[in-house]
Specification:
It contains ten helices and ten strands. With about 280 residues, the protein is α/β, with parallel strands linked by helices. The relative contact order is 0.13. The structure holds nicotinamide-adenine-dinucleotide. Nicotinamide-adenine-dinucleotide binds next to helix 9.
Length: about 280
């Protein structure tokens, strides 16, 4: 059921993940990250998405601690994601990177650990390390990010465990139709990064019209569009009123016509790098 911020989807290993979470890319370490995370938890968010490369795991960890204290929730009520960075890929280096992320976050397990990008020649060893962490029950779920269909096909040839998640750029300008179809067939839950296209869609006339009709903001329409497409979403904000706004998406439904109009915006265009040509 999709009722509120605590609503979850069951992943392919039975673990439940909230449909909506807070993203913290470009959020500064220290009080900025801590405040954003605490604010989100106090306002009902249960899922936080960070990564080693965001360099804010310590602040996020602090925010988790403060958020739990303020709400009386416990660690198991939250769903925390981090990602292994490209320069740490490989078997032993990934095992170490995971431990280091845990230390910075001040946690003793993650709910989800992702391969951040498909580094050629390395991502299979990295995946074996994630499988080890999973089998040793050090992490509840493992997945990938920025994998195209051909990366997934290649990984699946050798994988013992099918990734639970593929987190990729997804918004009305990049509808990822083939990749979504492939993931669905394989039981890999699709998750959107830059769902709001990093702010690039707020002036779009079609989205504005749909938003006005429902008495909602463009951000809310896009987040709702994710949910109605069965896509987990992690919009980023550090401002309390936007953190709250982005969570108020459970009291309206986009019509078939709305969905068709939004589908017409797809241009297969990206704000981030293409996983076939990234150079970092
Ligand atoms: P986003 O699409 O979530 O957009 C964020 C921007 O929109 C910010 O500038 C924010 O101030 C603004 N915004 C948010 N809510 C708003 C609202 N209601 N009204 C007006 N403006 C609003 O961009 P993002 O941060 O790139 O993506 C979300 C998250 O996805 C990241 O924080 C990160 O956790 C994750 N991510 C992952 C990868 C990856 O490679 N796996 C890459 C990029 C981002």
């Amino acid at each position: 059921m999709l009722n509120n911020l605590q609503s979850t989807v069951e992943l392919n290993n039975g673990v439940k993940m909230p449909w909506v979470g807070l993203g913290v890319f470009k959020v500064k370490d220290g009080s900025e990250a801590a405040n954003a995370v605490t604010t989100a938890i106090k306002n009902g968010y249960r899922s936080i998405d960070t990564a080693f490369v965001y360099k804010n795991e310590e602040g996020v960890g602090q925010g988790i601690k403060e958020g739990l204290k303020a709400t009386g929730l416990s660690r198991k009520d939250l769903f925390v994601t981090s990602k292994v960075w490209n320069s740490d890929q490989g078997y032993d280096t990934t095992l170490k990177a995971y431990d280091d992320s845990l230390k910075r976050l001040g946690l003793d397990y993650l709910d989800l650990y992702l391969i951040h990008w498909p580094v050629a020649g390395k991502y299979k060893d990295t995946w074996r390390a994630l499988e080890t962490l999973y089998k040793e029950k050090k992490v509840r779920t493992i997945g990938v990010s920025n994998f195209h269909v051909h990366h997934l096909e290649d990984l699946l040839k050798d994988a013992e465990i099918v990734p639970a998640i593929n987190q990729v750029e997804f918004h009305p300008r990049l509808a990822q139709i083939d990749l979504r179809h492939f993931c669905k067939k394989q039981g890999i839950q699709f998750e959107a990064w830059s769902p709001l296209m990093q702010g690039g869609l707020f002036d779009n006339a079609i989205l504005k019209e749909i938003a006005e009709k429902h008495g909602k903001s463009v951000a809310q329409v896009i987040i709702r569009w994710d949910l109605q497409n069965g896509v987990i979403t992690i919009p980023k904000s550090i401002k309390e009123h936007r953190i709250i706004e982005n969570s108020n998406v459970f009291d309206f439904t986009l019509t078939k016509e709305d969905l068709e109009q939004i589908a017409s915006l797809n241009e297969d265009s990206r704000v981030g790098s293409n996983p076939d040509t990234f150079n970092f």
